[in-house]
C-alpha cells in the first residue's frame, strides 16, 4: 500500500509564488493525471514530489512519511522524464539496472528483473544496444523500464509521450494503461494533453496558474467542469461558449442573447451577490449540438445558424457555424450534407448545458 | 551564334576552371603553411644528426653526410638530461592531474549551482588570463618563497596549476552546460548523491573536455620556462627547458646535443597527444535525450 499526499504546498522563486497552497491526496493504485497548459505548475509539483525541487511551504508525504527534506534517492520513487534522460554511455541493460546496482542488489536478481521488465516492454532484443542506436519509441520504453525495474512506491511521469509522433503516442498510451493495471502502484502523470489525461487517468487534477482548478474522475471533470477554464481545457474539440443573460419567463428560466433563447432545465440559485443573471456564459460541447431533431433527446428550441466551414474527419464532421455574433462548433455524423453559406437550424441538448459566471468563470449550478 | 547545349557546356567548363583555380590556390596556401611549420622540425632533426664538426653548414639535406646519433648519446651521457626529463615529467603529471581534478569540480559548481559570486567568479577567472605571465612572476616568486617552496616540486606544481586552472575551468564549465540536467536528475532519482551523479554520469560524458583540459595543462607546464627559471635555482631540480639552456654557453653552444635533447623531449608530448586523441570524440551524449 502506497499513497501520496500534498498538504498546503507552496513553491516560490524569490518573491514569485508559482504554486499556491496545493492540497491533494493520491490513493494507492490510483493513476492521477496532472493536466494543464504550459507554465501552470504541474511539472514543478511533480518535481517537488520527486525531490528535484525544494518545497517552500507545506508538506509532501509518501506513505504517511513526510519527505520534504529527503533526497530523491530516499523517497522510493521512480521517474520517467520528458526527454527520456537515458545515460548515453551505458547500454540499455546498464541503464535499466543502474538503480539496482547502486543499491547493491545481487547480480542474478538484477538479471532477472531486467529481463522481466524488458519482456513486459518488448525491448529484450535491444538490451546490448546504446541509447543512440534506438528509435524514440524504444528509448521511451527503456526509460519506463528503468523506472519500473526498481519496484518503486510511486511512479512519476513527466510528459513522457510528448516527444513521440501521434501513432506511437497512441500505442504507448495503451502500454501505459496496461502497465498500470499490472504494477498496482500510484502513478502521478503530468501532461498538457487532455486526451492522455482522459484516457489514462483514474483521477484528473486540472491545473492553471498554480492552482488546482478541479480534481475528480475524468467523467466528473468532463460532465461537470468546475469553471470555464476546466470546461474549455478538457474535451476535444473544445466546448462552445456563448455570452448572454438569464431571464425568468413565467415559471421557467431562459438563457438569452440577440440570437438565441435556450431553456435552462436545472434549478440555479436566485440572483444575488454570487450570481449575476445579467452576465453569464452558456457552455455547450460540440457533440451536444444537433443538426436535426432527435426524438429521444431533451432538446432546446431550434436555433437559426449559418454554416461557415465544414471539416471532414472521416467518421465525423466538424461544422463551424455562426449564430448572430457568436461562433459555434458542432461535431456531426459524416453524412451531414449542408455546404458553407447555407442557413439551417440546430438544437442544443438540454442535458448537456453548462452555465458559468462571466466575471469569476465559476460554474453556476 | 552558339546553340543552347553549347552555351551550357561552355558555362560548365568555365565553372570547373574557376573551381580548379580556387582549389589550387587553397592547396598552395595550405602546402606553404605546412612547409613553414614542418621546416624547423626537419631542420632541428637534421642538426641533431650532424657530426660535431659540421654544425654550421649550408647543407640543406635532411640527413647530412656522416649522420649519427652521437649527439643523442652524448646528451644522455654527459648531461643530467634524464634527471631534467624526470623532473619535468613529475611536475607536469602532478600539475595536469591536480589541474584537471580541481577544474572538473570547480567547472561543475559554476555550471550547475547558483551561489553568490557565480558570475563574478567566472569573470574574474577570465580576467586572470588577460594578465601577462611576466607580470605575475615577482608576486608568484615571493609567495612561493614565503611558503618555503623554492626549488621544490610542490612549488612548481602550485605555480603551474593555478595559472592554467582558469582556462580549464572555463573549458569544462562550457562543456557541462551542454549536458542535459535531466541526466543527473535521473541519476539522483535512481539513487546517487549529487557527487555520484557528477562522478558516474557527468564525468564519463565529459571526456572530450577533460582530455582538452589535460592536454592544455600538460603542454603548458611541459614547455614552461619563465616560472621555472625564477623558482628553480638548484640544477638537480631543473626541468628540461632549463637544462637545455645549460648547453648554451657564453662562447660555445653544443647545437647537436641541444637539437637532440629538443627532439627527445617532444616524445612524451607526442605519446600523450596520441593517447588523448581517442577521447577527443564529440557527440558522446547523442541519443540520451530527445534532441
Write the layout of secondary structure elements.
The complex is a heterodimer of chains A (365) and B (291).
Chain A: E1 4-13, E2 16-26, E3 31-35, H1 42-50, E4 57-62, E5 65-66, E6 77-80, H2 92-102, H3 107-120, H4 136-148, E7 154-158, H5 166-183, E8 187-191, H6 194-200, E9 203-208, E10 211-216, H7 218-223, H8 228-233, E11 240-249, E12 252-256, E13 261-263, E14 280-284, E15 289-290, E16 303-312, E17 316-323, E18 326-333, E19 343-348, E20 353-357
Parallel strand pairs in A: 3-8, 3-9, 6-7, 7-8
Antiparallel strand pairs in A: 1-2, 1-4, 4-5, 9-10, 11-12, 11-14, 12-13, 14-20, 15-19, 16-17, 16-19, 17-18
Helix pairs in contact in A: 2-3, 2-4
Chain B: H1 4-49, H2 70-78, H3 81-112, H4 118-128, H5 133-146, H6 153-177, H7 181-190, H8 194-205, H9 207-222, H10 226-231, H11 240-246, H12 255-276
Key traits:
heterodimer, A: 365 residues, alpha+beta, five-stranded antiparallel beta sheet, 20 strands, elongated, B: 291 residues, mainly alpha, 12 helices, 0% strand
Descriptive notes:
The complex is a heterodimer of chains A (about 375) and B (about 290). Chain A is an alpha+beta fold and about 375 residues long. Chain A contains 8 helices and 20 strands. Chain A has a 6-stranded mixed sheet with strand order 6-7-8-3-9-10, with helices on both faces. In chain A, strands 13-12-11-14-20 form a 5-stranded antiparallel sheet. In chain A, strands 15-19-16-17-18 form a 5-stranded antiparallel sheet, with no helix packed on it. In chain A, helix 2 (about 90-100) crosses helix 3 and helix 2 runs parallel beside helix 4 (about 135-150). Chain B is an all-alpha fold and about 290 residues long. Helix content of chain B is about 70%, strand content about 0%. In chain B, helix 3 (about 80-110) packs parallel to helix 6. Chain B is flat and about 65 Å long. The chains are: A alpha+beta (about 375), B mainly alpha (about 290). The interface of A and B includes residues 78, 83 and 85 of A.
Amino acid at each position: 500500500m502506497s499513497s501520496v499526499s500534498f498538504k498546503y504546498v507552496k513553491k516560490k522563486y524569490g518573491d514569485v509564488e508559482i504554486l499556491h497552497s496545493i492540497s491533494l491526496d493520491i490513493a494507492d493504485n490510483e493513476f492521477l493525471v496532472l493536466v494543464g497548459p504550459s507554465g501552470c505548475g504541474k511539472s514543478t509539483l511533480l518535481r517537488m514530489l520527486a525531490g528535484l525541487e525544494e518545497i517552500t511551504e507545506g508538506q509532501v508525504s509518501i506513505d504517511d512519511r513526510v519527505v520534504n527534506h529527503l533526497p530523491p534517492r530516499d523517497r522510493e520513487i521512480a521517474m520517467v522524464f520528458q526527454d527520456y534522460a537515458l545515460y548515453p554511455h551505458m547500454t540499455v541493460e546498464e541503464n535499466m539496472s543502474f538503480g539496482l546496482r547502486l543499491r547493491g542488489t545481487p547480480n542474478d536478481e538484477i538479471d532477472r528483473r531486467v529481463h522481466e521488465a524488458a519482456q513486459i516492454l518488448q525491448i529484450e532484443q535491444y538490451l546490448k544496444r546504446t541509447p543512440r542506436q534506438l528509435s524514440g519509441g524504444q528509448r521511451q520504453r527503456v526509460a519506463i523500464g528503468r523506472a519500473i525495474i526498481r519496484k518503486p512506491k510511486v511512479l512519476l511521469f513527466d510528459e513522457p509521450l510528448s516527444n513521440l509522433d501521434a501513432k506511437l503516442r497512441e500505442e504507448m498510451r495503451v502500454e501505459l494503461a496496461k502497465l498500470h493495471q499490472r504494477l498496482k502502484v500510484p502513478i502521478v502523470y503530468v501532461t498538457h494533453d487532455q486526451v492522455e489525461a482522459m484516457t489514462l487517468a483514474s483521477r484528473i487534477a486540472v491545473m492553471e496558474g498554480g492552482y488546482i482548478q478541479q480534481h475528480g474522475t475524468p467523467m466528473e471533470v468532463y460532465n461537470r467542469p468546475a469553471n470555464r477554464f476546466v470546461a474549455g481545457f478538457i474535451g476535444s474539440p473544445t466546448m462552445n461558449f456563448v455570452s448572454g443573460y438569464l431571464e425568468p419567463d413565467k415559471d421557467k428560466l431562459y438563457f438569452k442573447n440577440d440570437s438565441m433563447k435556450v431553456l435552462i432545465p436545472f434549478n440555479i440559485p436566485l440572483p444575488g451577490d454570487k450570481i449575476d443573471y445579467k452576465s453569464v456564459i452558456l457552455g455547450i460541447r460540440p457533440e451536444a449540438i444537433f443538426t436535426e431533431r432527435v426524438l429521444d433527446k431533451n432538446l432546446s428550441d431550434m436555433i437559426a445558424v449559418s454554416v461557415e466551414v465544414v471539416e471532414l474527419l472521416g467518421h465525423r464532421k466538424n461544422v463551424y457555424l455562426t449564430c448572430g455574433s457568436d461562433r459555434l462548433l458542432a461535431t456531426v455524423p459524416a453524412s451531414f450534407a449542408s455546404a458553407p453559406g447555407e442557413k439551417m437550424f440546430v438544437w442544443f441538448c438540454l442535458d448537456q448545458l453548462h452555465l458559468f459566471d462571466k466575471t469569476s468563470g465559476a460554474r453556476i449550478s | 551564334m552558339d546553340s543552347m547545349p553549347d552555351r551550357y557546356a561552355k558555362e560548365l567548363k568555365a565553372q570547373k576552371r574557376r573551381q580548379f583555380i580556387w582549389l589550387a590556390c587553397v592547396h598552395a596556401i595550405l602546402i606553404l603553411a605546412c612547409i613553414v611549420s614542418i621546416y624547423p622540425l626537419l631542420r632541428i632533426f637534421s642538426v641533431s644528426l650532424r657530426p660535431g664538426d659540421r654544425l654550421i653548414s649550408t647543407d640543406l639535406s635532411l640527413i647530412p653526410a656522416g649522420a649519427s646519433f652521437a649527439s643523442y648519446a652524448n646528451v644522455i651521457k654527459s648531461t643530467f638530461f634524464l634527471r631534467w626529463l624526470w623532473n619535468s615529467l613529475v611536475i607536469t603529471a602532478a600539475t595536469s592531474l591536480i589541474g584537471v581534478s580541481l577544474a572538473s569540480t570547480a567547472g561543475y559548481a559554476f555550471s550547475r549551482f547558483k551561489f553568490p559570486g557565480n558570475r563574478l567568479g567566472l569573470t574574474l577567472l577570465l580576467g586572470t588570463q588577460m594578465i601577462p605571465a611576466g607580470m605575475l612572476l615577482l608576486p608568484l616568486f615571493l609567495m612561493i618563497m614565503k611558503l618555503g617552496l623554492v626549488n621544490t616540486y610542490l612549488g612548481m606544481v602550485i605555480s603551474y596549476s593555478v595559472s592554467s586552472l582558469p582556462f580549464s575551468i572555463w573549458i569544462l564549465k562550457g562543456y557541462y552546460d551542454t549536458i542535459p540536467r535531466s541526466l543527473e536528475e535521473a541519476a539522483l532519482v535512481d539513487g546517487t548523491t549529487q557527487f555520484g551523479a557528477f562522478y558516474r554520469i557527468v564525468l564519463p560524458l565529459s571526456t572530450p573536455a577533460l582530455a582538452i583540459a589535460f592536454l592544455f595543462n600538460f603542454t603548458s607546464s611541459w614547455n614552461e620556462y619563465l616560472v621555472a627559471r625564477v623558482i628553480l635555482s638548484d640544477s638537480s631540480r631543473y626541468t628540461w627547458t632549463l637544462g637545455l639552456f645549460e648547453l648554451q654557453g657564453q662562447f660555445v653552444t653544443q647545437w647537436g646535443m641541444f637539437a637532440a635533447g629538443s627532439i627527445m623531449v617532444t616524445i612524451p608530448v607526442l605519446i600523450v597527444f596520441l593517447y588523448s586523441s581517442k577521447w577527443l570524440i564529440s557527440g558522446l551524449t547523442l541519443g540520451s535525450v530527445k534532441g
